[in-house]
Amino acid sequence: MSFFDSEVVRSELVEISELQEQVYKNVFTFYMMNKSEKINHVNTLQKLLEKQRILYTRMSLSDDPEAQKMKQNILDSAKMMGLDEQTDISYMFGNIEKVLEKMKEDIDKSNDP
């Protein structure tokens, strides 16, 4: 069975797509959101990041050529966005998680309603 034929993988891809749609839908109105909505948005980002991290790990562990091709596409895209070739993607995921946690702290501290 191909990596992408797995019911678990297909289900995760659907969920990632849905989370991405939620994020994109709200990204331009973030500044107008109240504190609770902002926290919910960041929580959605965290959930999306975790799903992406798990999928990337699964691809890394798979022998399936299609999984390896997608993994390489992700690495190529990351390089085009300025990520150094020597940087481990797992390190990047960890840094993004730290940024999201900091965002939530800053939102909590804000005077917004």
What can you tell me about this protein's structure?
The protein has helices spanning 7-27, 35-61, 65-80, 89-109. The protein is mainly α and 113 residues long.
Descriptors:
globular, mainly alpha, 0% strand, 113 residues
Short description:
With 113 residues, the chain is an all-alpha fold. The chain has one domain.
> What is the percent of helical residues?
over 70%
Task: Give start-end ranges of low-pLDDT stretches.
Answer: none
Number of helices: 4
Strand content: under 5%
Architecture blueprint of SSEs:
Layout: H1 7-27, H2 35-61, H3 65-80, H4 89-109
